[in-house]
């Protein structure tokens, strides 16, 4: 069982920054995220897009902001449970919580901060009738472990970055890579498009365009797919089918936690500390709602800060505390490092 | 100046809404402003033509701005696409849109 002070659900910018504010108060954090990487929407949807309304940054690429946040929090040694979804929450008699993921990983925390953005990102599934039957039986929506595809025949469908990048990567792993897309044009980074073109000419990636995968077949596991090529149905043998049509956010299991939900968002007490109707459970960032709510990263940072102060006060009732400024007090990491302003000298000038 | 736009939501309810032409808004944002679809089900990517959650079907013959490469590429990956599909986030609200009729595509 993983134990921590604040369990943060969601590794987007708000969740990451909460680690910093908690660290200043000597509170340890652990973060769960459904995606295999940190950064939430910023990494998943628009890592190369600039953001212009982060205070102090006239422009910052979303991916760079995530990297900077990670650099900012690393001395507070946050733990991560990635690629798993928070599924159930249990409040114990002492007011602490056990949160269990879909893979059974248990987390014991004194407080829970839901920073889940629009929800956990789930794959957009192609509209094929029986596709759910073949999930984990040859239909994979993520490439979690490339070795799974070693010397296998795979079919990748999609026309964006993921489809291009995984086709390139798996060209050297799988015995046969077929890339299917509804049209001849792909949308992705220029070097990815050029690389796929090169691999196609080398015969390492078979391109089938414009075409669509319209059916999957197999006895217990996938054995073949059906391609629609200009109206003509073609059967193709394969070991795996990897549809990469992007992700869509779903509130998911959190919706069943007994939280007050309004318009797909969690209601919180914004006059005080962004706590939900369950004491000890907070919601910060895009996932919460209150009168006047704005879904902005900078608002998430503020909410994270107030949440941490509230958790500190709850865990240390009656303890005298004044807000510290990092410029004055520096930052003492849990890893023993210390960041501080350079000392001035007091010295006579001869 | 406002224009009148008729939007059928995903439940089939028809809304006739007044859309401002001076607020740099687009059709996706108009739907959000009038709460025609729940948060998190429309405009997920914020309007970057990257998610197709604002896909709509254009139902009458009003001249719209041409489709850009990004919108075209996104629609080539989306589901439930029809010949009259567009991404609402790529259609700015201008006086030329007066009388536009559209329907939100399924989620």
Describe the structure.
The complex is a heterodimer of chains A (350) and B (107). Chain A has helices at residues 13-24, 41-44, 62-73, 161-171, 190-201, 297-315, 326-329, and strands spanning 2-9, 29-33, 50-51, 60-61, 79-82, 86-91, 97-101, 106-114, 120-123, 153-157, 176-180, 205-208, 211-217, 224-229, 232-237, 240-243, 247-250, 261-262, 265-267, 281-283, 288-289, 331-332, 338-339. In chain A, α1 packs parallel to α3 (62-73). Chain A is 21% helix and 29% strand. Chain A is globular, with a radius of gyration of 24 Å. Chain B has 107 residues and is of the alpha+beta class. Chain B has one domain: Beta-grasp domain (Ubiquitin-like (UB roll)). Helix content of chain B is 15%, strand content 23%. In chain B, strands 2-1-5-3-4 form a five-stranded mixed β-sheet, covered by helices on one side. The termini of chain B are far apart. Chains A and B meet through loops of A and α2 of B.
Quick description:
Chain A has 350 residues and is an alpha/beta fold. Chain A has 7 helices and 23 strands.
- Helix % of chain B is 10-25%
User: What is the ordering of alpha helices and beta strands of chain A?
Assistant: EHEHEEHEEEEEEHEHEEEEEEEEEEHHEE
According to CATH, the fold-level topology of chain B is Ubiquitin-like (UB roll)
Sketch the major β-sheet of chain A: 7 strands, mixed
**Helix content range of chain A:** 10-25%
Q: Report on the biggest sheet of chain B.
A: 5 strands, mixed
- The CATH topology of the largest domain in chain A, please? FAD/NAD(P)-binding domain
**Overall pLDDT confidence of chain B:** 94
Helix-strand pattern of chain B, N to C?
Answer: EEHEHEE
Write down the CATH class of chain B: Alpha Beta
Q: What's the assembly state of these chains?
A: heterodimer
């Amino acid at each position: 069982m993983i134990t921590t002070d604040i369990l943060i659900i969601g590794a987007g910018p708000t969740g990451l920054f909460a680690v910093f504010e908690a660290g200043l108060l000597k509170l340890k954090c652990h973060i769960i995220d459904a995606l295999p990487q940190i950064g939430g929407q910023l990494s998943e949807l628009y890592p190369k897009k600039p953001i212009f309304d982060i205070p102090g940054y006239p422009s910052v690429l979303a991916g760079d902001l995530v990297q900077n946040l990670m650099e900012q929090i690393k001395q507070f040694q946050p733990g991560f449970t990635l690629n798993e979804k928070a599924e159930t929450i249990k409040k114990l008699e002492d007011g602490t919580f056990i949160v269990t993921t879909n893979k059974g990983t248990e987390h014991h925390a004194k407080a829970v901060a839901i920073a889940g953005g629009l929800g956990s990102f789930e794959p957009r599934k192609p509209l094929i009738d029986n596709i759910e039957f073949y999930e984990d039986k040859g239909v994979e929506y993520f490439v979690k472990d490339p070795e799974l595809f070693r010397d296998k025949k795979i079919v990748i469908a999609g026309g964006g970055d993921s489809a291009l990048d995984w086709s390139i990567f798996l060209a050297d792993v799988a015995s046969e890579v077929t890339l299917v897309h509804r049209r001849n044009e792909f949308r992705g980074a220029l070097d990815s498009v050029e690389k796929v073109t090169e691999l196609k000419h080398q015969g390492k990636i078979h391109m089938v365009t414009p075409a669509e995968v319209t059916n999957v077949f197999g006895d217990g596991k996938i054995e073949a797919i059906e391609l629609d090529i200009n109206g003509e149905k073609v059967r193709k043998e394969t070991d795996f089918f990897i549809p990469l049509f992007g992700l869509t956010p779903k509130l998911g299991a959190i919706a069943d936690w007994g939280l007050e939900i309004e318009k797909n968002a969690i209601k919180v007490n914004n006059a005080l500390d962004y706590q939900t109707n369950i004491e000890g459970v907070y919601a910060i960032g895009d996932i919460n709602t209150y009168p006047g709510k704005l879904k902005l990263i900078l608002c998430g940072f503020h909410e994270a800060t107030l949440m941490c102060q509230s958790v500190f006060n709850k865990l240390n009732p009656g303890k005298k505390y004044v807000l510290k400024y990092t410029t004055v007090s520096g930052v003492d990491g849990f890893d023993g490092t210390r960041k501080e302003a350079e000392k001035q000298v007091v010295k006579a000038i001869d | 100046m406002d224009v009148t736009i008729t939007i059928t939501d995903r439940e089939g309810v028809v809304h006739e809404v007044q859309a401002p032409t001076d607020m740099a808004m687009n059709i996706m944002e108009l739907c959000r402003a009038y709460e025609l679809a729940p948060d998190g089900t429309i405009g997920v990517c914020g309007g970057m033509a990257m998610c197709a959650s604002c896909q709509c079907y254009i139902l009458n013959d009003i001249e719209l701005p041409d489709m850009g490469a990004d919108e075209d590429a996104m629609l080539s990956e989306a589901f439930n696409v029809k010949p009259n599909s567009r991404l609402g986030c790529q259609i700015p609200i201008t006086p030329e849109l007066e009388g536009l009729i559209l329907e939100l595509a399924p989620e």
